[in-house]
Structure formats: C-alpha cells, structure tokens
C-alpha cells in the first residue's frame, strides 16, 4: 500500500508526523512477520514543491505535488491529517484558505475513478467540504461535531466510533485518532503486522495517561485472527480448507468466520485468497519463475487458476 500524506501550511504537527511514524514503523516491522507482505510506503504531498511550515513551525519536505498524485497511479490512497483550528470559527476560516481550496479540487479529481481517501480530526472537514462524504457514514473530531452536522447535513455522522470506513473513504475522530486511522490501514494489509507495529510503538508500558489514550487498536486486536493469518502464510503452498485451519487453531469454522468478519470485514476464504495473491505478486516481481511454478507455490494446480485469482483480486481489492 502506497499512501500520500497531505501536508498543508499550518497543519497539526503531531497528526502529520504520527501517521508517517506509524506507517514507516509498520513497513520496517514486515520482516518480523513475513518479508513478502506488500510494502507500506508513505510520502508527503502538498500543493507546491516548497517545504511546508506546520502550525508548530516545522518545515516538512515535499515528495509529491497534488498535481503529480492526480496524474499518476502509483499511490493507492491520499490521507488528509488535521488542520490546526482553535474554534469552530477558525475551522471555517481554514476551509476558505487558498491551499485548502486547491486541495479540495485535487481530491475531487483524485476520487473521480474511485481511488481511496482518508482523513482524521479536522481533516475530515476538507473531505466533507468537497462533497466527498455526502451520503456516507463518517466521523470527525468530537469538539466540532455540532458544526460538522450543521454544515454537512448529507453526511451520516457517527461519533461513537474512532474510525469509520464507508466504501473507498475512511475517517477518524480527534487528534490521537491519527494513530487509529494509520493502524487501520496497516491492519488492512496484515492484522498480524498491525499487532506487531502496535506493540513496537507502545513498548513503554508505564501507566501514563497519554499511553492509555492511544491503545484503541490493541483493544480491538484479535489474537485468533492474527494466528489464522500466520497459519495461512505458513501453509500457502498446500491445498487446504478453512476448516483445516480452524481445527489447527483449536476453534470452530463458525467462530473463525465470525471473528474474521468482525475484524476484517471479509471471510476466512477471502483472506486466504488475498494472501495467495499477495505471495504470487511478490514472486512475479522478484523471481524468474513461470506462472505455473508460482501457482504451485501458492496452492494452485495450474497457471490459469492463478490468473483467475489475480483478476478477481484486482476487481475486489479487499478480497471479500
């Protein structure tokens, strides 16, 4: 997964840097889980090429312009962190800034063909202002929910959840929700990798309030789903049924199906297909093996079955 993280002048420092830190930590942690997990990269994106000053005075180097992102297809998702705002009035003022208007236009162009978007905290206002949350479920920062509801009546506002995903758009709540949003993106690539990443980031176990406030992902972690992913990765070359994995993990197929559905919004079979496609893609990029050889290494009898899998996964990115 390749993600563009938008940096606008006056953006909230910790929102931007937290997302980058989580995604880069996850990418580095892949070797602890499975080196063949797809890379998770994050690049900074801005309207122009000059370094962007944050609200706290940091200068953020820019890797891509918004125009670059719209014109190319190598990024999978654009993520808008929080804009610095101290009150509802300053939030409205921020939406009127030239660079925010430019971002709204770029987001509309970006999303025209269904490409994915995400935003956290006050960054959700940018998506809503562009009409990209109309008729969708979304969330926002708790202290601005009343303004959000009045300004965007077509959005189904849900302030009961930290991260809300509706189709190709994900939104997250207040400032520390940047962590939960980034972790949710990692979990889509690999629940097991998300667990390893969360553990690494929360290695300091002192009972500080700041640590307690950002453990949302760990609270939702499901060890059975992690173990299922690990078991599948170690048996990809074999022809197995989901019930085989359930028995090996000491659970029932029904329980496994329920837990995977709750955690990943897909079926165990959908996850198996995704992992087979992921391994096959890695082998195609990094070896000279034929499609027939690769098919056998990921549990398929012939190349035509593997090609059918890869076509299906392209049409359904979540592998459901």
Question: What can be said about the biggest beta sheet?
Answer: 7 strands, mixed
- Could you tell me how far the N terminus lies from the C terminus, measured between alpha carbons in angstroms? 18 Å
Shape: globular
Strand content: 5-15%
Per CATH, which architecture of the largest domain?
3-Layer(aba) Sandwich
CATH topology of the largest domain: Rossmann fold
Instruction: Identify low-pLDDT runs.
Output: 203-219
Mean pLDDT comes to 84
Pairing-aware structural class of the strands and helices?
A: alpha/beta
Helix content: 40-55%
Number of strands: 11
Order of helices and strands: EHEEEEHEHHEHEHEEEHHHHHHHHHH
| CATH top level assignment of the largest domain | Alpha Beta
Number of helices: 16
Total separate domains: 2
| Assembly state (oligomeric) | single chain
Rg calc? 20 Å
Q: CATH H-level name of the largest domain... which superfamily?
A: Class I glutamine amidotransferase (GATase) domain
If strands are numbered along the chain, what order do they take across the biggest sheet?
5-2-1-6-7-11-10
Describe the structure.
This protein is of the alpha/beta class. The protein has two domains: 2-198, 3-Layer(aba) Sandwich (Rossmann fold); 222-320, Arc Repressor Mutant, subunit A. It is built from 16 helices and eleven strands. The protein has helices spanning 13-33, 66-71, 88-95, 98-111, 123-129, 145-151, 177-189, 191-201, 209-212, 216-220, 223-234, 242-248, 253-264, 268-286, 291-297, 303-315, and strands at residues 2-6, 41-46, 52-53, 59-60, 64-65, 77-80, 116-120, 137-138, 156-157, 163-166, 169-172. A seven-stranded mixed beta sheet has the order 5-2-1-6-7-11-10, with helices on both faces. A two-stranded antiparallel sheet has the order 3-4. Strand 10 (163-166) and strand 11 (169-172) form a beta hairpin. Helix 15 (291-297) crosses helix 16. Mean pLDDT is 84; it is low at 203-219.
């Amino acid at each position: 997964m390749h993600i563009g993280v938008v940096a606008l002048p006056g953006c909230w420092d910790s929102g931007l840097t937290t997302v980058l830190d989580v995604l880069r930590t996850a990418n580095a942690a892949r070797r602890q889980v499975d080196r063949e997990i797809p890379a998770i990269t994050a690049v900074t994106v801005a309207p122009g090429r000059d370094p962007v000053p944050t609200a706290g005075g940091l200068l953020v180097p820019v890797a891509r312009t918004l125009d670059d992102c719209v014109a190319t297809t190598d990024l999978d998702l654009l993520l808008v962190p929080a804009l610095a705002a101290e009150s509802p009035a300053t939030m409205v003022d921020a939406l009127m800034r030239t660079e925010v208007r430019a971002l709204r236009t770029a987001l509309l162009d970006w999303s025209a063909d269904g490409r994915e978007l995400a935003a956290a905290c006050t960054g959700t206002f940018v998506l809503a202002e562009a009409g990209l949350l109309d008729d969708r479920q979304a969330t926002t920062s708790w202290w601005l929910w009343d303004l959000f509801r009045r300004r965007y009546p077509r959005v189904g506002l849900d302030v009961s959840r930290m991260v809300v995903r509706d189709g190709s758009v994900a939104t997250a709540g207040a400032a520390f929700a940047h962590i939960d949003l980034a972790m949710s993106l990692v979990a889509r690539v690999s629940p097991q990798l998300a667990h390893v990443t969360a553990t690494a980031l929360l290695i300091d176990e002192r009972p500080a309030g700041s640590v307690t406030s950002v453990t949302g992902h760990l609270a939702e972690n499901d060890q059975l789903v992690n173990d299922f992913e690990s078991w599948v990765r170690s048996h990809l070359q074999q022809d197995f049924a989901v019930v085989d994995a359930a028995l090996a993990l000491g659970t029932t197929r029904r329980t496994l199906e329920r837990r995977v559905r709750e955690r990943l919004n897909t079926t165990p079979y959908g996850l198996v297909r995704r992992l087979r496609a992921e391994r096959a893609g890695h082998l195609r990029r990094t070896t000279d093996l034929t499609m027939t050889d690769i098919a056998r290494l990921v549990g398929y009898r012939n190349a035509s079955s593997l090609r059918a899998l890869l076509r299906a996964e392209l049409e359904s990115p979540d592998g459901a």
